[in-house]
Amino acid sequence: MPKATIDDVATLADVSIKTVSRVVNREPNVREATREKVEKAIAKLNYRPNKAAQNLASHHSRLIVLVYDDPSAYEIPSAGFIIRMQQGALRACWSANYELLIHPCRYRNKDVGEELKALIEQVRPDGIVLAAPLSNVNRIVNAILETQTPIVRLSPGKQNGKQFSVATNDREICAEMTRYLVSLGHRRIAFIKGHPDHKAVGNRYLGYQDGLKQCGLPISDEFVIEGDNSILSGEACAAELLNRPQPPSAIFAANDDMAAGVIRVADRLEIKVPEQLSVAGCDDIALAQQIYPALTTINQPLAAMADEAVRLLINPEGKTKTPRTAIVPGTLRVRDSTGPAPGQL
Amino acid sequence: MPKATIDDVATLADVSIKTVSRVVNREPNVREATREKVEKAIAKLNYRPNKAAQNLASHHSRLIVLVYDDPSAYEIPSAGFIIRMQQGALRACWSANYELLIHPCRYRNKDVGEELKALIEQVRPDGIVLAAPLSNVNRIVNAILETQTPIVRLSPGKQNGKQFSVATNDREICAEMTRYLVSLGHRRIAFIKGHPDHKAVGNRYLGYQDGLKQCGLPISDEFVIEGDNSILSGEACAAELLNRPQPPSAIFAANDDMAAGVIRVADRLEIKVPEQLSVAGCDDIALAQQIYPALTTINQPLAAMADEAVRLLINPEGKTKTPRTAIVPGTLRVRDSTGPAPGQL
DNA sequence: GTGAAAGCGCTAACAC
DNA sequence: GTGTTAGCGCTTTCAC
Questions:
Q1: Are A334 and A328 in contact (CB under 8 A)?
Q2: Do domains B63-168+302-328 and B170-301 have the same CATH topology?
Q3: What are the sequence ranges of the domains in chain A?
Q4: Residues 258-287 of chain A whose Cβ lies under 8 A from any Cβ of chain B
Q5: H or E stretch including A5?
Q6: How far apart are CA A66 and CA A123, in angstroms?
C-alpha cells in the first residue's frame, strides 16, 4: 500500500490538512475532540509526515551535522572519543526529532572549508557541531560562518567568545585530582605537561598548580617536566623523575598515554604502583582500564558535551542569546594506580 | 543574499529550468555549448540544488542509513569496528553524492523493529546497511523489509540467501593462516574455538582444518579446545594446552581476545613468544597492536565491507539482480607473535 | 478554532 | 536538444 499522506489523514478525520498539520506539530488552537479524531486517523493510517516535504516547506531540515577530524586507520585510539561524541549528539538529536549527519574530515586538507560549505548548502542543516581540533582552525570556522549556519564549537580545553562553544572544567578538575593526591598523603607530586601546541593541556598544568596552592603546598617546577603526549615521552619523563635521589611519590600526567608510559617505566624499575608510586592520568581513554594497574584518571565527558552542543543548536536559546561557553564538568575516575603515600614521610 | 534557485540559474543562462536540471544531473541531450553556458551561470550564482526539493520531487533521498548495535560505554572496544564501518560506508556514499545517517540501536530492545520502521518512513532512505549482530535477527530484518526499503546485511561470517549481504572469506583466510604457521615449521598447531553461539567463528574452525588438510597434515581434535571469546577463556585454554607433556608449538585462536589471553599465560609460564610458542588471533582489534609482542592476526576488512554494502544499495545492480553475497577478503597481519617453530621438532 | 490557497525548489512526463 | 506543465507533501499566510 502506498504511504499515507496528510491528505489521506485529513479526509479520514474529516478536517482540513492544516488541522492535521497542527496536530502533528503540536501547535495550539485545536479543540481536544478534533485532536483526538485526527490522532485516531493518524494511527489508523500509520501516517508519518514526509521529511522532505516538511523541509522544503518549512525551510529547515531537522538535521544536525557533526564534523570531526577523520582518524586514519593508525590512530584509531580516538575511536572511543568519536563514538562517545556521536552518542551524545544522537541523544540530543533524537529527543528533539532531529537526525544527525556525521562528517569526518581531514583537517589538514586545504579545502575543508569549501567542502563544508558545499555540504551545508546542499543539505541545509539546522546547525553544525564542530569538534576539536577543527574547532580551533579559524579558516574552517569562518567558512561555516559564511553560510550563516548556527555553529557550536566543541573544544575540551579552550574557550572562545565569538561563537557558542562547549568546554570542560579542565583546570578545576585537575586541581581536584591534585587535592586528591595530597589527601592521600603525597607531598612530592610531579606533573608531566603535554605538548605545548595542544591547547587543552595548558589548563591542566594550571589546575595542578591551583590544587597545590589550595592545599597550602609550595608551587615549584622542581617536579614539573614536559612530554609530548605520547607514551614514549611519558616513559622518558618518568625515567628522569624516578632516577632522582629524591623521586616524587606521585606522578600526575596531562594525558593517559603519558601516564601509561610512567606505569611501564615503574614496572621496569620494579617500583610498585600504587604502593611505592601513585600515577594519575587525564582523559580516560580505553587503555586506562586495560593496563595494570587500572589507571586513575579524569573522565572527559564527551557525550555530555556533544549532547549540550546539539541542545544549544536546537533550542531557540541558542539562536538568540549572546554567545556563551557551556561548561560540562569532568569527573575523577579513581582506579588502582593511586594509593596512600609510602611511609607518610 | 538569498540562495540561488534553479530558476535564477535558468534565467541567467537563458534556458529553461529543465535544461539546468539536465546539466546538474548529468543527463544526456544537452548541447555542449548550452552545458557550458549553464555551468557558468551555476558557478557565478554559486548555485547548489536544494536536497529537500530534489528528494520531494524525485522520491528518493540520497540518504543511506547505517544501523548497528549501540555499544554501551563499557564495551567501547567495538568502537574501532564501528568507526571503520562508518568510514567505509561514508566513502561509498560520498563518491555517489549520498549522505549517511547513522543509527546505533540496542538490539535487545523489543521495539527496534518499530523504531526502524518509524525512522525509515520519515526519512525515506534509499537503502539500509544492517550490521551484525542485528543483521542476524529476523524480527529486525523483517521489519525493515516491510517498508520495502532495499537492505544489505553486513555479517562477517554468515551468509544468507534471501537478501543481499556482504561477508568475509573467514574460512579461506583462516586456512591461509594455518598454512602460514605450517610454513614456519609448526606441526603441533592448536586451535581455540570461539563461543558456539557466535556464528562467525564456526567457519574459522573449518578454515583451520582446511589449512591442515591442504598441507597434508592429519586432522585431529587433539589440539582443539573451546573458549567463549573472552580473554579469560583464552587464558584457561592456554593453561590447559601448555601444561600438557606434549604442548603445541603454535596456538591459533578464533579471536584476538583469546589470543591475548594465550600470550598472557605464556608470559606467566615464562614461555617465550614467538621463540618457544607462536600465537595467532583473528579480527585485528586495537589490542592486537598494543600487546607485547604485537599479535599476528587476521584483518576484518570492515571498511571495505561497508563500502561494498553501500555500493550494492546505490548501484542499479543492487535493485535488480537476484540477491547475492559479496565476499570481501580479509588479510593476514603478520606481526611479532609468530615465528619459526622451535627446534624444528 | 479551522480552512483555502499559495507556494517551497525541484523532477517527471511529455510535447515540440 | 529543449521547454512546458503538473505535481511531490508539506507549511505559511491569512481569511473566516
A1: no
A2: yes
A3: 6-49, 63-168+302-328, 170-301
A4: 286-287
A5: none
A6: 13
* Residue from B146, B144, B172, B167 nearest B157 by CA: B167
- What is the SS3 assignment for A216-268? CCCCCCCCEEECCCCHHHHHHHHHHHHCCCCCCCEEEECCHHHHHHHHHHHHH
Name beta bridge partners: A158.
Answer: none
Range list of H helices, chain B? 6-13, 17-24, 32-45, 51-58, 79-95, 112-123, 138-146, 170-183, 202-214, 231-242, 256-268, 287-290, 302-314, 316-320
Residue B345: the pLDDT is: 46
B79 and chain A in contact, CB less than 8 A:
yes
> Which one-letter DSSP state was computed for residue B125?
-
| B33 CB inside 7 Å of strand C | no
Q: In CATH, what number does B170-301 get? A: 3.40.50.2300
pLDDT tier for residue A344 given thresholds of 50, 70 and 90: low
- The answer regarding whether domain B63-168+302-328 maps to CATH 3.40.50.2300 reads yes
Strand partners, B298: B332
Query: Over chain A, what is the mean pLDDT?
Result: 90
Q: Across the strands, what pairs with A127? A: A64
Q: Which of residues 295-324 of A touch B (CB under 8 A)?
A: none
Report, in this order, helix, strand and coil percent for chain B, each rounded to 5.
50, 15, 35
Q: What is the DSSP letter of A311?
A: H
DSSP tag of B109: S
All residues at 6 or more sequence positions from B21 whose CB lies less than 8 Å from its CB, including other chains: B6, B27
What is the homologous superfamily of the domain A6-49 according to CATH? lambda repressor-like DNA-binding domains (1.10.260.40)
Query: Quick check: A196 pLDDT over 90?
Result: no
Q: Average pLDDT of each block of 10 consecutive residues along chain B (345 residues)?
A: 85 93 90 92 92 91 94 71 94 92 89 90 91 88 90 75 85 97 97 82 91 95 94 96 96 96 96 97 88 94 95 74 82 97 73
Q: Residue B291: list chain A partners with CB under 8 A.
A: none
Does B53 contact chain A (CB < 8 Å)? yes
The answer for residues whose C-beta is within 8 angstroms of residue A251's C-beta and 6 or more apart is: A189, A190, A191, A192, A238, A241, A259, A262, A277, A278, A279, A280
Cβ of residue A52 closer than 8 Å to a chain B Cβ: yes
Give the pLDDT confidence score for residue A138 in this predicted structure: 87
Cell 549482530 sits on residue: B133
pLDDT tens for residues A22-61?
999 998 888 999 999 999 999 999 999 999 999 999 998 9
